[in-house]
Each structure stands twice: as C-alpha cells, then as structure tokens.
Amino acid sequence: MYQQQNSRFRETILIINDNPKSLKLLTELLSTQGYKVEIATSSKQVLETIHFILPDLILLEVKMPDIDGYQICEILKRDERTCNIPVIFISALDGVMDKIKAFTVGGVDYITKPFELIEILARIENQLRLQSLQQELQQQNARLQLLLKTTHAISEASDFESALEVILAEICQTMNWDFGEAWIPNQDNTMLRFSRGWYASNTSNGALPLTLKFRQQHQIITFSSHPGFLERVFSSQQAEWLEDISQEQYSVSICSEIAEKIGIKSALGIPIILERKVLTILVFFHKICRSLDQNSMELVNGVATQLGGLIQRKKAELALKKANQDLQVIASLD
C-alpha cells in the first residue's frame, strides 16, 4: 500500500476573525495542540485562502468588517469545494435567533463569548471526529459502488484487455482523472507491454491525436538498471504518486514532450496483485498538479486489492473458453 510520511501537523483549522486579541488567543491554543492554523481577517482573505488551502474545520466570528459571518458561511456552503467543511460560529451574541440563524446557514455548532478554552477544544475535536466518521462512510460507499460497477463490467467483457479498459474508465470517472492506461508484464517479468485498453475523459478529446501517436511508438518498456516510474511500481508492488511528472528523471510512460503538449501534470501508478504477483499496472493521469488525497488513495487501493482476484478469474474463464473452443475444433476434424 502507498506509504505517506507522517505530517508534522494534525488537521488544518481556518480562523475567520478580525480581532487581533482573539486571533492570538485561538492561534496559540490550537497550535499548542498540534493543529495547523490559517487566518483570514476579511471575506476577501477567506476566498483567497480556500483557493489554495482547504481547511478541515472553520472557526467563524459572526461580526466581521465587510460582510458578517452568516453571509460568509452561506458563500462557503454554495461552493462545491467547501460545502462539507464544518463551520463553528463564535460570537458574543447569545440570542436564540442568532443561534438559529447560524444553524440555518449551515453552521454545525455555536460558541458564545466568553468561552472556556477547554470547551473550544472539545467542540472542535467532536466536529472533526464526526467529519472523519462521515468521510469514512462515504469512502466505504464509494468503494462498494466502484467495486460493483467494475465487477459487473469485468463479467460482461469479451476479453482481458477489454476488461482493463472498463476498469480504467470506471476508476477515472469516479476519481475525476483525465487519462488511464494499463501495462501488462510478460511471463519472464523482464518487460511491460502497453494494453490496448485505455481511457481518456470527454474533456481531453483535443489531446487524443497526440496520445494515439505516442502509443503507436511506445508500447513496450524493457526493465533496465535505472528503474523509472512503472518499473518502481512493479518491483515494489506498491502504489506511487507523482504530484509533478516533470520532476521525474525517467520516463513516466508518456514521454515528456507529448505530456507537455497534452498538459499532463500528475500520475498515479497502482499495481494489481494476486498472490504476490503483479497482474497489471494501472496508471492514471491528471492535467493539474494534484497533491496527495489520502482518501482517494485508500479508495483506489481498496478496489485494487479486490480486482486482483476478479481479473485472475476472468483470465481463467477466458482460458477455459478457448480450451473448449480448441476441443470443439479438434472434435470436428475426426
């Protein structure tokens, strides 16, 4: 499985507050607990911050200089990228209608001033725990749905490489990757052959001629003493994530010149393994530099673990079908 180095910080918390004293107090409190803290003192800074960093939780002051916290929360909840981030309101307003409005616009909790620091931490940890459980349930459901789709598709496929093409399409569409391809090792494990089954999203149609041209020229990778991306995935039998393929010293399946023209930035290699043997390597590409999404990685790894057995059964089924056809041919000659 993909190994990620332990992060220095716990979750990231965005504090939206224009009061220097409150900012200092909350920042010191959360930092000492290991949280990574981001600060925004206006609605403009909020939008700038979330463009680059998606926090795990937001502490939002109701009284803000330009637009109030309620309006900021409404903006965040309308945005697909931020709508699921839990928002905890902090305010000196303790009226019932103030609290009702906070929950109406999408807040998950409301803390009135003055507050105890231990209360802040307890409420934050509670919401982060609930968020984690919800994400885990969503991930399990996504894994189940993806596995059901791929299982059905594999059973309906006419041959092994057609099955690979369907798997690539299902994973790319679920994970929002632009391109997908598969590589199959030979019996001696000395080279990888490019599978005829591959996938490109509808938004990548302009890149298809270049992609096809490359694949006509680059269909076999022979293992060398200087292992590249695919060889590392094969030999380690672990997934590998390249946030920026331009930093890769050796080939990442698609040569750098073609990759630059197509606009490919990130790559993910996933080995499909059964009984410690690599059956195939699935490779996914994206046209933006994507940082590691641990939930996505765990989802793909979970599906890949199940695919090993499914692919092997498909290969055995096809082999048996061919054997029966050969027997029928022999019988017809008698």
The total beta strand count reads 11
The amount of beta strand, in percent, is: 15-25%
Low-confidence stretches: 1-8
Give the oligomeric state of the chains in this entry, treating copies of one chain as homo and distinct chains as hetero. single chain
Q: For the report, how would you describe the main beta sheet?
A: 6 strands, antiparallel
Share in helix = 40-55%
The fourth-level CATH homologous superfamily of the largest domain is: GAF domain
Distance between the termini: 53 Å
Based on CA atoms alone, the radius of gyration comes out at: 25 Å
Structural class per helix/strand content?
A: alpha/beta
Mean pLDDT equals 80
Give the tally of structural domains: 2
Which strand order does the major sheet show? 8-7-6-11-10-9
Summary tags:
about 325 residues, alpha/beta, Rossmann fold, Beta-Lactamase, 2 domains, 6-stranded antiparallel β-sheet, 10 helices, elongated, disordered N terminus
Question: What can you tell me about this protein's structure?
Answer:
The protein is of the alpha/beta class and 334 residues long. The chain has two domains: 104 residues, Rossmann fold, CATH 3.40.50; 199 residues, GAF domain (Beta-Lactamase). 49% of the residues lie in helices and 20% in strands. The protein has ten helices and eleven strands. The strands form two sheets. Strands 8-7-6-11-10-9 form a six-stranded antiparallel β-sheet. The chain has a five-stranded parallel β-sheet with strand order 2-1-3-4-5, with helices on both faces. β10 and β11 form a beta hairpin. α5 packs antiparallel against α6, α5 packs parallel to α10 and α6 runs antiparallel to α10. It is elongated. The N and C termini lie far apart (53 Å). 28% of the residues are buried.
